[in-house]
């Protein structure tokens, strides 16, 4: 399951997001050590556009779309999302674009996972 399935464009319910995340976390395979994430070869600033705090109801801006496009083909996109959800200490420390999702999308997912007791 890709992170595209987690996007809030279809506005799935909170329970559905939690179920999708659990399935993604279980389906992760060990990542080969020689796999390089796309973001490792790009300018880090590209993943922190100034308007990355846009809300769920707003479409991504031009800078966000560029960062999202870089994530789209990354072979580590699912492990990136699962790792961030497990490691980030609070919802307020979620910033920028990561794992093909905007800041607002990952914050909503984090809160849903926290409420469901997954985190």
TL;DR?
The protein is mainly α and 119 residues long.
Question: Based on helices, strands and strand pairing, what is the structural class?
Answer: mainly alpha
Report strand %.
under 5%
Number of strands: 0
- Overall shape: globular
Terminal CA distance: 20 Å
What key attributes describe this structure?
single chain, 119 residues, mainly alpha, 4 helices, 0% strand, globular
Description:
The longest helix has 14 residues, at 14-27. The chain is mainly α. It has helices at 14-27, 62-72, 77-87, 103-115. The radius of gyration is 14 Å and the shape is globular. The chain contains four helices and no strands.
Strands, helices and their partners?
Layout lengths: L13 H14 L34 H11 L4 H11 L15 H13 L4
């Amino acid at each position: 399951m890709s992170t595209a399935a987690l996007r809030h464009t279809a506005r799935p319910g909170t329970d559905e997001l939690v179920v999708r995340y659990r399935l993604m976390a279980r389906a992760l395979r060990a990542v080969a050590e020689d796999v390089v994430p796309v973001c490792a070869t790009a300018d880090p600033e590209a993943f922190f556009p100034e308007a990355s705090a846009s809300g769920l109801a707003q479409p991504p801006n031009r800078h966000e779309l560029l960062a999202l496009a870089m994530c789209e083909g990354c072979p580590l996109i699912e492990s990136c999302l699962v790792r961030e959800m497990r490691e980030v200490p609070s919802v307020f420390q979620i910033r920028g674009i990561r794992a093909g999702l905007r800041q607002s999308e990952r914050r909503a997912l984090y809160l849903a996972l926290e409420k469901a007791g997954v985190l």
